[in-house]
Every structure is written in C-alpha cells, then in structure tokens.
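User: Is it possible to get a 3D structure for a protein together with its bound compound? The compound here is protoporphyrin IX containing FE. I've pasted both below.
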Amino acid sequence: MAALGITMALLVWMAVLLLVSIWKQVYSSWNLPPGPFPLPFFGNLFQLEFKNIPKSLDKLAERFGPVFTLYLGPRRTVVLHGYKAVKEALLDHKNELSGRGDIPAFREYRDKGIIFNNGPTWKDVRRFSLTTLRDYGMGKKANEERIQKEMHFLLAELRKTQGQPFDPTFLIGCAPFNVIADILFHKHFDYNDKICQRLMHLFNENFYLLSTTWLEFYNNFSSYLHYLPGNHRKVIKNVSEIKEYVTVKVKEHQQSLDPNCPRDFTDCLLVEMEKEKHSVEPLYTLDNIAVTVADILFAGTETTSTTLRYGLLILMKYPEIEDKIHEEIDRVIGPRRTPATKDRLEMPYTDAVVHEIQRFINLVPNNLPHEATRDTTFRGYVIPKGTIIIPTLSPILYDSQEFPDPEKFKPEHFLDEQGRFKYSDYFKPFSTGKRVCVGEGLARMELFLLLTAILQNFNLRPLVDPKDIDLSPKTIGFGRIPPHYKLCVIPRA
Ligand code: HEM
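Assistant: Yes, that's possible. Here is the predicted structure of the complex:
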C-alpha cells in the first residue's frame, strides 16, 4: 500500500514537472518567431540533418520564413536566413544582437580576447586590437609589403617540390601563418619549423573536428557529454595547447619589453597592461592578452589557408579558368614583377575568381553564433536576452537571385557584360555588423596576392582527370572542410 502511494506521488510529481517545463517553454516563447514544436530536452534536434545543417535550415526557412526559432537541445536559438533578415538584424540591431553565443569547446577562452568574448571587455579589446593592428600590420601598405615578402618564401618552397606531388595543407598554410606571426610576434618561421608545423596541425585538426557531427552535439549538450570520451576532449586539449604556446611567447615579450619601442602587436598589448598596472579592474591581464593573441593567430591562419587550398582544387577542376588567370597575369604583371594590390584594379577576372572562390566554398556557412544581449523586438517578435542568434551566411552567398546557378562555380557572378568586376553586397563571407571579421582586409589582400603569385609562377597539375575532381566538402559543420588532395606545381616557362 505504502509502495503504491509512493509510486503515485512520484508519478504526480513527474507530471507536474513536465507540465511546468511545457508551460515555461510556451510562456517564454509566446512572442518568439515561429518554429517547429520542440520536444522536451531534445528540442528540435530530430528536425536537423546533422551532416548538413545549412541544408536543414534552408528547409525550415521554407516552412517558417526567414526568421525562425529552433531549440538546439536545451538552447533557444533564433535563425536569421537570407540577406534581408541578416542585414537588418546585424546592422539595425547591432547593439542588441552582437553578443557572442557560447561555444563550449572554447570555454577556456570565454569572455576573454575577441572572438569568444561575450563580456564587458569585448568592445574595448576589439577596438584597441583593430587600431593597433592598423598601426602594426594591418595598415594597407605594411600588409602588402609583409605579404609580398612572404610570397617569395612560399614560391621558393613550391619550387623545391620539383614538380612532384605534394599535400598543400601545411606548405600553403605557412604563408598566412607567417604573415600573422610577423604581426603578432615579429617573427618568421621556417616552413619546416616544428612549432609552426605543430600549431598549424592543431588549427587544422580543430577546424575539422569542430565541423563534425559529434562536436555539433557537444556544443549543444556539453553539460551532459563533457565527461564522456570523444573528440571534444581533443579539441579542448588543442585549444589549451595553443594558449600555452601563446602565453610563453607573451611572457618572453614581457621580459624584453621596451615600452617606448613596441615591436609588434603583443608588445602593444603589454604596454597597455603596464599603463593599467594600478587599476583595480584591469582590462589587460596576461590571460586576456594571451587569448587575444591566440584568437588572431588561429582565426588569421586557418581560414585563409583553407580558402587557398580549396581555391587551388577548384582551379584544377576548371583548367580553362586557370588559363584565363594566367593570361591576365601575363598581360598585366608579366613574368617577373612581384604582384601588388594595385594590380587588382586591372585584373577583374582574377579578382572575380577570388571572390567566387570565397562565395562558392562558403567557408563558415552558419557564421559564428551571436547572442541577444537584451530583450530585443525584431520584426514584431520579442527575442529574449540570452537567446542564441544564428545569422547564417550560406543563404546569402547562395542566393539564386543575386547569383544565378549558385551551386555552380562561375566567376561571371562577379563580372558584368563588359568583363568588368561587378560588386555584390551579397558577398558576405566575413559577416557584417559589429562582429564583422577583424581580418577581412588582410585576408582579402592575402588571397589575391598569394593566388596571383602562385599562378604567375606555376601551372597547377592535378593527379586525376579534372572531370573526376570532386569539390564536395569532406564535412560540413562549423566550417566546410575541403577534401584532402595532392597536386603538382609545374614552373611556367
Ligand atoms: C578567408 C578568411 C576569413 C574568413 C572567411 C573569416 C570569417 C569570419 C567570420 C564569418 C567571423 C564571424 C563574424 C560574426 O560573428 O558575425 C569572423 C570573426 C573574426 N575573424 Fe575572421 N575570417 C577570415 C580571416 C581572418 C583573419 C586573417 C583574421 C585575423 C587577422 C581574422 C580574425 C577574426 C576575429 C578576431 C574575429 C572575431 C570578431 C569578433 O568577435 O568581434 N579573420 N571571421
């Protein structure tokens, strides 16, 4: 009798809990954008194809419109789909919707540095970094010279391959790595340097693992999955190792610092730390500096390097496009002069190809998650503070009105009838608004100059028939990761 009573009481208790949780969900979503009905705990996970989330979001947008609510497990999320919704949210509501959504795999960096900072220090660190980077590296002229210097090292390494097959991942990646290392540490790494290779391996492995289904799950159910074995542990370990390396570099800089003569970006941050020495709540601590530097090191290396690698594969699939670039380079630059940014104005075809590579590969399809920093009224809905915002980039880059046949690689997407470069405001691989990529200018300059230099000096040779080259990404998640491949580069006469 007593056992029956206890069972009944438990059942009633569970029913009450379930009702309260459903009521809470309904109440808090009263004025939210529409969306599929969420299950308790799992949310809308079963409505998503985890191997291709952008595709699932396209399908949901067809049903619910360009602004919809989705529960990723327990996380309430509002998805912005398409040019108008993303621009309106990130530009007209830039203060409210520019927080950073939590990415549990990077919790060690949370609320420090720039990328993963959702705290009060983000604005100041970002602003100071942008101005300093302009002075110590991101000023247009200084950057151009830095990239041109690196170009020669890259070309020398490519020559060493002597027309034999090689994996471009780390060889090509060394160039963007060194450009950033020069800005941050005033240091150039040899292409075989063990530390440089190790760091690039960590960036590369993390970008890949973050784009796998397990990590997508982990980032939404981290409290349940954290202690289980799995690749999230590897990502978290790699993130720590990167920070450890950067911390050592920052401390080395601190020991040899001359506040009157900062050598690089790291020195500039340390000078600020010195100035704040007596402050009760200093903005720049060693930890915050290390995360800021680590942010720029990996964001600035892996993205540009993956874009170059994907770009070369695309050009091998379309040798007629490669030929047209060779022709334009020969006409505008010739065989010997070092490519310069001013050449871009006279090279609309190459410029269009570089844009099309970025559009087509759609490197960060779902953007990085944002967060509502306060209750926000958007298109008549109320998005509560703390809601994750996904301002997707994929539907903008693949908009079929702006880019007819978006699934096809067509440099003509960025060319007018007369073959002149055609600007598109839908070109948003770097996002937009207050969180827009800090390295956009640098990345675009690197992509144009490095690709031009490679093609000025070499013909690309695939190891298979171009028709058999499959451009589909190896995995789609946080990033769209290119398939692994090898190629040969043959010096041009
Ligand atoms: C092809 C190259 C690149 C692509 C496609 C790219 C793309 C992006 C995207 C989509 C974001 C998120 C924007 C948002 O949250 O709305 C971002 C943020 C960021 N990127 Fe890049 N990026 C590239 C290169 C670089 C480079 C070279 C650097 C460094 C010099 C860099 C540093 C950053 C930083 C620090 C942020 C965080 C901004 C913030 O949270 O305030 N990126 N990038």
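Residues 100, 114-115, 126, 295-296, 299-300, 303-304, 307, 363-364, 367-368, 429-431, 435-439, 442-443 surround protoporphyrin IX containing FE (CB under 6 Å). Residues 248 and 425 are 42 Å apart (CA to CA).
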